[in-house]
Amino acid sequence: LPLFLYGAGRRLFGDTAGLAAGTITAVNFPMARLSVVPLYDGWILLLAGLIVWLVVRAEGRGHPLLDWACLGLLAAAGVYFKSTFLIVPPLLAAAVVPRLGLRRAALRGAVALGVPLLALLPWVVRNERIHHRPILTNTFFWATVWEGFGEIDNDFGAVLDDRATFAMVTAGRPEIAYASPEYDDLLKPRVLEVLRTRPGFLLRLAAHRLVRGLFLPDDRWGIPPAEGPGRSFAAFRARTGGGPIAYVAAEPLAATVKILQRLWSPLLLGVALLSMWLHRRRWRAFLPLLGVAAAFLSTAVLLHLEGRYLLPAVLVWTLLAAGVRACAPGR
Question: Most CB contacts within 10 A, which of 43, 55, 135, 169?
Answer without folding.
Answer: 55
